[in-house]
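ARCHIVE CARD
Drawer: 12
Card no.: 0347
Subject: one protein chain, sequence and derived structure
Cross-reference: see card 0346
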Amino acid sequence: MKTATITEAKNGLSALIDRVKAGESVIITDRGVPVAVLAPAPGRVDLEDRLASLERRGLIRRGAGGPALAEILRRRPVPTPGTDALALVREDRDARW
């Protein structure tokens, strides 16, 4: 849990709010004595804010895109007893490329 003095909180409130949006709590101190806790509102989870925070800290790198929906939903061959699995894999690969 992060701690910040009143002066640090006043001067860097935006950065502290970003941390709170990411799910962290921040203890505000006055001359070393905890006086307040800045914490996320109950039930509030903003995935986009969380991912942006992790990306800014260099902990993740989001991809540029993924496979097309049609590719994800495409039916894959199902092997039946006596079928050569390697042949099915080759057939699937050749169908895509």
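Annotation on reverse: The first helix runs from residue 6 to 11. The chain has a mean pLDDT of 84.
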